[in-house]
Amino acid sequence: MNMDPYQVLGISPDATDEQVKAAYRELAKKYHPDHYGDNPLSDLAQEKMQQINEAYDTIIKQRRAGRSGGARSQYGDIRNLIRAGRIEDAEVLLDGIPEAARDAEWHFLKGSLLYKKGWLDAAAEHFSAACRMDPANQEYQAAFRQISARRQGGGYAAQPRGCSGCDMCTGLICADCCCESMGCDLIRCC
Hints:
The protein is 68% helix and 0% strand. The chain has helices at residues 5-9, 17-31, 42-66, 72-83, 87-95, 104-117, 120-133, 138-152, 165-181, 186-189.
């Protein structure tokens, strides 16, 4: 049975990618076969789940193929997600790009999101790959120079990151442990 994938997900063809994903997730929760166990509706739920998966896959493939230059226009969306701090969403989109289509821009963006996650060695490797693939790109070169300077300047701690509530709490716990090991109670001492 060839049904319209948008109709299966209950959305219109002009729905955003986020709306497509939300509709899929909602239906997947509702019809997931694990919720039906030995229920007589188990087979129906499994069939419905298969339709939902096929519809979602079809929409995603159509949208990727319809974007000019394949992943090229998707990179703008990924950049916006990284800027907005939506690192996990950006990573899902980035990792969804086939390996054969992963160009210098892909490596730069992968490096950028790894940098935001704090995985600095891996970020440096991707920035380096982006520079090798497109040595004339000044943005890629600047990112690689910045991370290289941090590595040569005495490690990654050269750039202050501020102090969060977790950092303060951890510091107090460490101080309390040190005081207790010396026979002192931090709370009474201070």
